[in-house]
Every structure is written in C-alpha cells, then in structure tokens.
Amino acid sequence: MTSDVLIESKDEHGVLTLTLNHLPTRNALTGTGLTEALLDAFARIEADASIKALILTAQGKVFSSGGKIDEMARQIQPEVTPAALRQEYRHGIQRLPLALYQLEIPTIAAVNGMAIGAGCDLACMCDIRIASQTATFAESFVKVGIIPGDGGAWFLPRIVGMARAVEMSLTGEPVDAETALQWGLVSRVVPEQDLLATAQALAHKMTVNSPDVIRMTKRLLREGQQSSLANLLELSAAYQAIAHKTPEHAQIINDFMARKAAKASATK
To answer: Is-contact 64 26, C-beta < 8 A?
Structure first.
C-alpha cells in the first residue's frame, strides 16, 4: 500500500522499504499525515510474517524536518489548552516510538539528508542508522523553545552516551555524518548514491537467517537494556528452547553432521 505521503516497496527477500514523501514540508512528521501513515504501516508489518526487515528512508534532500512550524503556531493559541496538548502528544506522535520500537523485525534508518528534531528521533527509534555523506543530525527542539516530546531523551543517551546526548540536546547544534559515525550515532557513512543499496545489502545479510531467531534475538537485545541479568537469562532459556526446535536450526545441524560423517568416511 502506498499513500500520498509514504511510499512502500518490498523486495524478494522480504525487506520492506518505507520512504517518507512529503516534500513541501521536507517530510515533517506532524500536520502532514506522515505519523498516521507510518503507524498504519507498522501495524501491517507486525501482522505480516513475510516481512523480515524494514528500511526507513526519505525522498528529497532531507530525511525529516521534524515538527511542522504551522502546527506549532496552532498549538500556542490560547484556546489550545495544556491538557489538550498533552493528549495530542499521547495519542499522536508518541504512538510512533512505541510502535516502531516494538517491531520484532530489524529496522534500518537510511538517512539521506538532514534529520532534525523529531526526524533525528525517528532515526534513533530504528535499530541501525546508515547515513549518506550529506546527512546531519540535530536534536534541535531547544532551538524552537520546546523539549524532545517524542522519546528522544530516552533513545539518544542509549545510543551516543549521556554527555553527547546532553550536548546535542542543550545546544541544538547539528552533527555531521562523520561526527555521527565517531559518536556511534550511525554505523556507516556512504556516498549518497550508495545509501539505499547499502541498507538493502545489510538487511539481506539478516533475512537469510531464521526469521524466528532474528525476532527473538532482537527482543533479547531490547530487554537487555533494562532487565536484570537474572531475568534476561530466564527469558534467554525460554527463547533458546524455542530456537532449538526451529526447522532452520535442525537443517543447519543435520547438514553439519552429514559433512562430518562424510569427512570421517573419507579418511578411513
């Protein structure tokens, strides 16, 4: 399904690419329908076992400009109360980090240009970020007099560490692609023309593996960020029991044993 603001495509490996496509606002997430389109896509992805990985990228020279200033102008009007704004956030853009973070498949942000404010946070919601050489990242909420309202204060310190997250959040200054690589904000920087192909190649290295094992491994990595070691080991034992019974595991072990038997027979 393709909407006016979000392009979808899926390849033969089960890799779905979602492309932000609202050029008039440089792919702003608010006031454009993009948040709603992404939420709809994430719900369908979660229910579709044929989708094994997700790439999130954008049309144009900007990944996402974050919040739409026209929306902020509406929000400061006297008739819009703080209570109403709180509910707008809870039932609007704050659904995005919850839905994207909870996806069981691997998610890759292919950041093609500026990722500003909520756009930076959207990239941080993904498991992996690959940047083009022209990409920049700015946790720039402070520059317009607001705070990171969409979970950036949770994601960013976990990725770059507290000191660098504080620097980005309190200055609002942009970080270029090479600095983002040094800080661990992205795992690769590639020429602009190679961005999508690099993201696809990485996704394909994942999708050749057991989809069930991929999903469980990602869940363990997520839980390990906030769980005790004892609780994580309990969950690992349960998941490992499931993994041992997957057909992919059985095939790998049977193939290994067959090669071992053949080698032993050849040496006799």
So the answer is: yes
Task: Name the E strands within the chain.
Answer: 6-10, 15-20, 53-58, 62-64, 107-111, 114-116, 128-132, 136-138, 175-176, 188-190
32-54 pLDDT, tens digit each: 999 999 999 999 999 999 999 99
* 118 in a structural domain: yes
Strand 6-10 and strand 15-20: pairing? antiparallel
Res 267 pLDDT > 80: no
Residue 215 has pLDDT above 60, yes or no: yes
Percent with pLDDT over 90 in the chain: 91
Last-in-domain residue among 183, 207, 231: 207
Domain hosting 231: range is: 211-266
3-state secondary structure of 124: helix
Rounded Cα gap, residues 168 and 258, in angstroms:
55
- Looking at the domain assignment, is residue 133 inside a domain? yes
Residue 96 corresponds to which tokens in the numbers above? 């995005």
Residue 223, pLDDT score: 94
Whether residue 254 is found in the same domain as residue 241? yes
pLDDT at 64 over 80: yes
pTM (global) more than 0.85: yes
Please report whether residue 1 resides in a domain: no
Residues 85 and 200 in one domain: yes
Backbone φ and ψ for 52, nearest 5 degrees, come out as: -110, -15
Q: Residue 19 domain-assigned?
A: yes
